[in-house]
Amino acid sequence: MSRSSGRKADLIVAAQRAIARHGTSVRLNQIATIAGVSSGAVLYHYPEVEDLLVEANRAGMERFYNERMEAIAGLTDPAERLYVTISLGVPSDPDDDDVRLLCSLGGEASRNTVYALLLTSLYDRQVGMYSTILEVGEATGAFTLQQSAQTISRNLVALEDAYGYRIMAKHPTLDYATAVDLILDYARMATGHPLPATHRMNPSLPEQHDEEGPTP
Asked: Measured between alpha carbons, how far is 38 from 201 in angstroms, rounded to an integer?
């Protein structure tokens, strides 16, 4: 990576943190402060701050599509692919900066065409991701779909979004494990498959243990 590319990557991360902290009305000086550079240095790489904000939002979204696709790339069991995909679609805690960024983006989408297009693209890709998993599972006999693959996929993405927002709002009865269990419950009904056991932790998080020993 060139020095310029590295600096741009640092600015994108700083912009993501600034948006998560201040919302989409974030100012140039706030991004510069988090990046530890002058406002002029930001403008040198991004003469139009809006371009930096778009790049920051696009990069933050990749976790919910590209990183999930990478996580299931080596898996062949449709049930395991579905479980892992669901488990990586929910924020682990209320301090999740990527989800804060998406929440800010969602609030601004009705007034910003670019942000609306980014969110629409992410939604469509996630629906397509789930649809492929479900269709392969049905074709191999692993799943008995109770609705069309597209309908189930839309509902799965909607549940991720809804529970994600509740987690970010620090709802007292919703945490990561509970949200994943609830989504898995729907997935079980929709696919006719028992799927893996509940309360397995997010594969991207460190392994955790309870009083009875390791989580299965």
From this structure: 41
- DSSP code of residue 202: P
In angstroms, the Cα distances linking 48 to 6, 18, 33, 55, 209 are: 18, 16, 17, 11, 48
Which is the CATH superfamily of the domain at 65-195? Tetracycline Repressor, domain 2 (1.10.357.10)
Domain 3-58 fold is Arc Repressor Mutant, subunit A (1.10.10)
State the Cα–Cα distance between residues 32 and 27, nearest whole angstrom: 9
Which neighbouring-strand residues pair with 166?
none
For helices 113-139 and 97-108, what crossing angle results, to 10°? Answer: 120
Dist CA 125 CA 36 (whole Å): 35
pLDDT tens-place string over residues 131-160 = 999 999 999 999 999 999 999 999 999 999
Please give the average per-residue pLDDT across 89-116, as a whole number: 77
DSSP H stretches of helix in the chain: 3-22, 28-35, 39-45, 49-61, 66-72, 78-87, 97-108, 113-139, 149-168, 176-191
Percent of the chain with pLDDT over 70: 86
Domain positions in the chain are 3-58, 65-195
Q: What is the pLDDT of residues 156-192, one digit of tens each?
A: 999 999 999 899 889 999 999 999 999 999 999 999 9
Q: Which of 128, 152, 135, 60 is nearest to 97 (CA)?
A: 60
